[in-house]
Every structure is written in structure tokens, then in C-alpha cells.
Amino acid sequence: MTVESTAARKPRRSAGTTAAKSGASTTGTKSAASKRTSAAGKKSPGVPGAPGASGPGPELVQLLTPEGERVKDATYDPYVADITPEELRGLYRDMVLTRRFDAEATSLQRQGELGLWASLLGQEAAQIGSGRATREDDYVFPTYREHGVAWCRGVDPTNLLGMFRGVNNGGWDPNSNNFHLYTIVIGSQTLHATGYAMGVAKDGADSAVIAYFGDGASSQGDVAESFTFSAVYNAPVVFFCQNNQWAISEPTEKQTRVPLYQRAQGYGFPGVRVDGNDVIACLAVTKWALERARRGEGPTLVEAYTYRMGAHTTSDDPTKYRADEERESWEAKDPILRLRAYLEASNHADEGFFAELEAESEALGKRVREVVRAMPDPDHFAIFENVYADGHALVDEERAQFAAYQASFADEGEGK
Amino acid sequence: MAAEKMALAKAINESLRTALDTDPKVLIMGEDVGKLGGVFRVTDGLQKDFGEDRVIDTPLAESGIVGTAIGLALRGYRPVVEIQFDGFVFPAYDQIVTQLAKMHARALGKIKLPVVIRIPYGGGIGAVEHHSESPEALFAHVAGLKVVSPSNASDAYWMMQQAIQSDDPVIFFEPKRRYWDKGEVTTDAIPGPLHKAVVARAGSDLTLAAYGPMVKVCLEAAAAAQEEGKSIEVLDLRSMSPIDFDSVQASVEKTRRLVVVHEAPVFLGTGAEIAARITERCFYHLEAPVLRVGGYHAPYPPARLEEEYLPGLDRVLDAVDRSLAY
Ligand SMILES: Cc1ncc(C[n+]2csc(CCOP(=O)(O)OP(=O)(O)O)c2C)c(N)n1
């Protein structure tokens, strides 16, 4: 039953409180750096043989240069050796459509159709490369920005929008695509992934688990504990850290003084830094890590070195903390342009392919707009749904009170 | 500075600024509190003026933020930490409950922990999961912590001053949906004690007791009831630990009726405690049972349902009617 508006009772207030936003001034400020903290905040002074925490460093695995040239890598090439032109076009298509979906969601937020949006702009290669490396029976634990991974798992992208529109707190059945719900409390899901992987191992299954998180999340205790547990129990889990350089306004240097992938060493499993804007490298490295997990060799930390090109979320104001030049320098490493250059140079795609994709992209945008606008508000009684699996007397009582209260509006209206 | 009209968030900003200015031991810590000025801009401009040594962007680790603040306090500092949103305090809950709250007693009173934990809390801003909760009862239940929440700009300024000056840990709940509400702040007036409730509006037929974001709703309810000829007193509790039961009692002895309003779930909440105590203290004065209006025993709902979940004017007036009907 849906309760109609409360108008019948003549509410003694104007309905609806003003939704306030967290935005504020856009003035940028330069911080007065003090000696001591700025030393800690500076680029890593250099652990011997290690690149600074902020630079990509020589260990970066790359199979496709920013100019779109294919480069060789003895360790990881075997994982993409048999990739077909069609599959390459598929990766390109995934990235283009994901970017389009993301752009549409951003506009929908601006138009007031979504309360908030966390854009993945710039991180398409990290997500599509790793997402396409997973097998159907693998299980994925995302954070809140993994729209590209969701796409790879076959989750209808419009399902991702419900929680951002405020009509639900999830929006999909995690088991139908082995794609868990988005997790907002930073780092929590890495422990869930580890536990799930421990279960997979106990069951003797050969599937693997992948957990996504950000560079900021690497500071959370849960992430450290998930590293410990997964190492000790040799859990088949891949930790996929998208280092997009920022945790809202804080650069990676505020989280670590060594490159993040090196953290794995202390826990006793391998860590790899991959060019997160290189979809082929992300695919290869993640495949390698997932296969290790399947073979019973335990966890791996993959650090995809990438960049968040947009704001943290639509309520963020990046002009307060980062320079335009930084974004511009990363635009030159755009994951989509890079693969396009390669596809064109190697004659793996023709004009027809790109034109068709453009049309498909338009259609996706249109569908997303339509679905979102038509998304109904939830039934009022949804508040009381699924609070407990077996029911609960207090919830039942409160639901009845709520129903009586709602009905009181209608009754009075009719009585008058 | 004398009297000035400012938003509640700005009042806290000014209060923090005053504290940083007057006491070199005061530190601000948290995620994004520096350059960005916090996601609500409550710490806007502070790092620029006081430097990164005093306004510290921390790693993204709440347990780490509170745990290190405890250490800094042991060393003589007065950290004021920001938890970005209500739902994210839980990674730090262990540090707050097992360490921060108990250390003073365990040290036979020999050490002090003047840590303020600022938490923007409550709903009404259309946010996603974990950004709208009211977990104050979970903290008020823990001995060793003080729990307060201002409802207006002036209190925000002064209560923050008092919280920072307190030698006890204070959980400072900031009503985030009131951040942009403006009010007169008189920075040279001498305020009442931190834990004293105040009569926000005098009345004689019934007392509405609330704190933080619900005070405004109760004032609106009282104004609406006035039009129907009912005289409602609104008590702004300001503090949930300790609770100023004397002020509640005095009001109830006058009005004989009490309705407690908060956003947090009613079950085992602050209102339950007030109802029990006031029943004990004012049994022969009460004309009606103490009623409570608040959230349901359900997870905080998605934004499109929060209007149903949060106590609004009508639900408060409904409880007023029920109480007066006894
Ligand atoms: C426990 C917790 N603390 C704070 C927040 C608020 N918050 C949301 S996203 C974010 C930054 C996360 O940065 P990172 O882990 O690098 O991921 P990214 O958003 O850059 O992908 C913060 C502080 C949160 N969601 N959870």
C-alpha cells in the first residue's frame, strides 16, 4: 500500500525541508607549510631502490604507452598474448560506454535527478582492465566508484543510480552477478572480501575474489587487517587499489611514504604497480594475480596508478586543493585515447566501428536519462522492510503506528 | 568582536579560530580539514592561517585519528578532531570507548584527556547511506565521555569554546542540517555552563524537550500550537551527557506534560532515559505519560524516505495532541 500525500490532513507546516548542500566558497588557498609536517608530506625521500610515493617509478608495469605504442613485458605479456582484435575493440567499447554512462550520471546530478555522484572519469582502464580479467565465478567487492567494474560484471548501469538518487541503499542483488553492493565506509569491504576468499578456499573452489579500494583507504585499519588475514590464511584474494592520487583533498603523500604496492612485502605477498591508464596492462596484471590466487598461492596487491580527472564527488570542489596543470598532465595519459591510437595504428578498428560506438553511446545516455527520471520514489513502508530476516516485534509495532499515523491524514481529510 | 549574525558552521569556525589563537596547545585534526576546510567548510581558512602543524590533514583512518589524538592529549595538547560524518565514527569507536573514555579513571585521575571529537550528525540533507545518522545515545551510554550538541550559532560558538576548555573528552555533535542557519553570536557575552539546558521558548501547557537539529522543529511546532491556543515550552537540552534533569524537572513541574524529540531511534535512546528519570522525579506532577518522538527501529532510510523517518512538525504536534488528550 502506498500512502498518498499528507495534504489531506492540512499539515501545519509546509512539507519538505530544504535539502542543503555541502558546497561552499570556491576560493583556493595556499597553505603556509610548516617545516616539520611538510617534511613528512613531501615526496618520499627515497627508500633505497624504491620510487617516491608520488611518482610512478621504474617498477610501473606498462604494455601500452600514452602514445598508444605496444611495449613488451616478459612477465605480463603472456597474459594478453592471445588477445584478439575483437577483444581489444571490446575493451575500448567498455571504456567509452562507461565514460558515457558516468558523464550522464554527472549531468543528471546537476539537473537534480541524483543527490550525489562519484565519477570514475579517468579510471576507466583500471576498472575495465581488472574487471574483464575476472571470471564469472569470481566475486567482486567494490567501493562506491566502481561503475566500470559493475559494467564488466553485467550489472545494469541504471541499477547503480538508485542509491545516488536516494531511492534505496543498494540497488542490486549481489549474488546475481557476483558483484557485491557498493561500500561507503572506507576499507570495510576488504575484510569482507578476505573472509569470502577464506570461504572459497575452504570450499576447495578455484574461483578468486577481488577487492577494490582507494589510496586513502590504504590507511584504514580494516585494510591492514585484511592484508594480515589474507596472508595468514593464504586467501585467494586480489587487492586492487586504484591510486587515483587523491582522497578527497588529500594527496597520496598524506597516506603513505612508500609506494603503496610495496606495503604487500611486509605482509608476505607480492605487490605490483601497474599503469592504471593502460587497459591492457591492467588486464594482464590482474589476470596474473587472479590466477595466482586460483592456484592457491594467496593474495596479491595490485596498485593501479591512475588519476581521478573529475571531482571526488559532485559535492566536492577540487579547485580548493589541486592545480589545473595536474589534471592537464594526466589528460595526456587518457586511457581511452591511448587505446584508440593503438587500435587505429594497428588497423584493428575502422571508422565504422567508432561511428557505431558513438551511436551506441548516445543510446545508452538516452536510456540512462529515461530510466532515472522514471525511477519511482520508494513506498513509505520500505523503511520497515528487511530490517530483520525473521521479523521483529518492535518493528511491527512501529510499522503499525506509522500506518495509523499516515492514515490519520486521509481520515481527517475525508471527515471534513 | 561584539554581536554578529553568522551561520552555525561559521560560528564553529570562529570558535576554533579563537581557540587556536589563544591556546598554542589546541590542534585541529581530521580528513580534509586543511586545504579544503572540511567537507562542510567548518575549518575553512584555518590551515592557511595557523599552518599544517596545527591544522592537520590526517591519513584516512578514524581509529588512527582518535588514537593519536589521545596520545597528543597525554602530551599536553588539546586536539579537536573532526570525524567527517556520523556513520564514519565507528572505526574509531573502539578507541573512543575502550581508551578515551576510561583512561582518566584508570590513571586514578592523574591524567586528563581534553579531546574534542566533532561529528556532523543527523539527516535532512538528502545524503547517501552513513551520512545522516544520530548515534549520540551510543556515546552518552559510555561513562567518561561528555556528549553535547548545539542547536544555534551562538551555542555553537560558545559550546565549542567550553568543550575545548574542558579537561574531559567531549563528543561534539554538530547538527549538519543547521550548518547554514544564521543566528546572532555575541562573542563577549558570558555563557551559561556547557551542560545546562535552556528554555528556548516559555510556555505553560506542555514541555517539548529536544537538542541539536530538533530544537528548530520544536520551536516551529510551538509556534503552530500557539495558533491553536496551546502554550508550549521548548527546552533545548544542549547536553546528552550529562543531562540537565533539574531543568527538565522544573519545566515539567510547571507544564505537567513532557514530549521528548530526537532524530535518533526512540528505542533505548536519549528520550527513554529522560522519560524514566522524569517519571521518577515528577510522578505526582505528570498529567500524561512522557512521550517520545524520534526515529524508528530501522536503518536510516534512503534520502527519498527521510521525510517519513525524521520527526517533522506534524509528528511532534501529533504527540503534543496525544499528551494533552490525557
Ligand atoms: C570510514 C570513512 N571515513 C571517511 C569517509 C568519507 N570519505 C568518503 S570517500 C573519502 C576519500 C576516499 O579516498 P580513496 O580511498 O583514495 O578513494 P577514492 O574516492 O579516491 O576513489 C572519504 C574521506 C568514509 N566514506 N568512510
From TrEMBL, chain A:
Residues 1-61 are annotated as: Disordered. It comes from the Bacteria. Gene3D superfamilies: 3.40.50.970. Residues 14-58 have a biased composition (Low complexity). Keywords: Oxidoreductase, Pyruvate, Thiamine pyrophosphate. Pfam families: E1_dh (PF00676). InterPro entries: Alpha-ketoacid_DH_E1_comp, DH_E1, PdhA/BkdA, THDP-binding. Its cofactor is thiamine diphosphate. Residues 93-371 form the Dehydrogenase E1 component domain. This is Pyruvate dehydrogenase (Acetyl-transferring) E1 component subunit alpha. The gene is pdhA.
TrEMBL record, chain B:
Its cofactor is thiamine diphosphate. It holds the Pfam family Transketolase_C. It is an enzyme of class 1 (oxidoreductase). Keywords: Oxidoreductase. Residues 6-181 form the Transketolase-like pyrimidine-binding domain. Its EC number is 1.2.4.4. It comes from the Bacteria. This is 3-methyl-2-oxobutanoate dehydrogenase (2-methylpropanoyl-transferring). It comes from Streptomyces mirabilis.
